[in-house]
Structure formats: structure tokens, C-alpha cells
Amino acid sequence: MTPPDEPLSITRSVSVAAPAETLWEALSRPGELGAWLGGDVDLDVRPGGVGTAALPDGERSILVTEAEPGARLSWLWWRDDGDLSSVEFSLRPAGDTTVVTVVERSCTVPKASASAGGSPKASASGAGSSPEARASGAGGWARLGARGELALARR
Q1: Which of the following CATH numbers is that of domain 9-115+122-153: 3.40.50.720, 3.60.15.10, 2.60.120.200, 3.30.530.20?
Q2: For the segment 59-99, what is each residue's pLDDT rounded down to a tens digit?
């Protein structure tokens, strides 16, 4: 269990049978990024670009902090309730595939009372009551591989 005074971090990696450039195109187009995240995304994918994401666990505002074509896309996103986290997609070629790694780090410290009663598990939608689910949208990242591969298969 993460101590209540430490930020949370979730990392997921998936190997996709596509070149990094193809995956970058999928990440940099709001409609396809929305398919990866499981919702609707409206985003200007360049450093300083802003947008929104309407996901199953709620809406978020987004500020792009880095966009390196074919390699990395990062942003800060937050909900109106104040939960703030950073997200980074990195693309690493590996032979005929590309390893996509997503790291989401909480930038807000979970309330101590959230972990006082034990460690409830997150629901499949990421809307569970654990601090990990609230701070990071864990459900969306858990489904990253399947959604990303499905989105690419339709291309």
C-alpha cells in the first residue's frame, strides 16, 4: 500500500506490431487518442496545447507539456475536483514492434482518510474508491493494450 503522503504512479507497457511513426499518428489525432483512452478527446497535440477528455470516469482538462513526434507525448490533466496528474506516452521501436509505455503520476497527494480503511480495489471502469483509481484513472490504462491494438487494426 502506498503511504498516504506519497504521490501515486502507474506504469503500463504494451508491444504493438506497428512502427513508432504509425503509433505517433494514432496518439496525435484526437479521435484515435480517444480510442486509446476509451472516450472523447479534443486536444491540440503540441507543447502548450490544451484540450479536454470525456472519459467513463469523468471529464478532464489537458495541457500538453511535450510532443516529440514518433517518440513521446506528455501532458498534465486534471478534474474540476482538483485531482491533477501527469501522463507520458513513450514509443520505443523493438524490431518489428513498438513498445508503448504509459506512465501516469499523481501530482496531488491522496487524502489520508482515503487509505485509513484499508485498500479497496478499483473497479473495471477506473472509478473505484481507492486513491490509486481516483488519482490516476487506472481503469483506462489497464485497457491500453487492447484499445490501442484495436484502433491500429482498423487503420
Answers
A1: 3.30.530.20
A2: 999 999 999 999 999 999 999 888 899 999 999 999 999 99
